[in-house]
């Protein structure tokens, strides 16, 4: 699920080290908001398939063997891929049970960008957050298993919270721009647009979290 309503930072890799390069052990690049993917549909489908297989393997091993006792090598072997393939998709084992957040963020961003010009900004954000609910609903069993793990393992809970913070930043930026436009259009200048955008985005995410947690339980 989305953890508690307090947002944390990204974690350093806790197991294994990727091959030398930009994602080497000891450094996790800042998770900026994603650019739109340039992969072909077939390549994107294959990428998501591998990521989901790795996620399923990690979830099963964490549940049966324990998070701390599970290694990246074991996750890769259970998914039938090489260790280097694992690190092409994930930077650490705690990231491995969240295969869909990046693509979901791209879809949510696309909803915001395609919004009709006169749509209420909050309605647009609510449509964007539906993409997140669709992600969980696409695999109910996996979502429930992941929720249980994030409740039990602090490292996984922090990873989930960090992922959720990206959605909130996306929605806050969108609302800030559109509330600012509305203020100028309506000649309203006596409210704090950044604060209003932050509060509104947080309210939408919190409401979604509440519904999602009730469903996952």
From TrEMBL:
Residues 1-46 are annotated as: Disordered. It comes from the Bacteria. Residues 48-108 form the HTH tetR-type domain. InterPro entries: DNA-bd_HTH_TetR-type_CS, Homeodomain-like_sf, HTH-type_TetR-like_transc_reg, HTH_TetR. Residues 71-90 bind DNA. Keywords: DNA-binding. The keyword DNA-binding applies. One of its GO terms (molecular function) is DNA-binding transcription factor activity. This is TetR family transcriptional regulator. It comes from Streptomyces boncukensis.
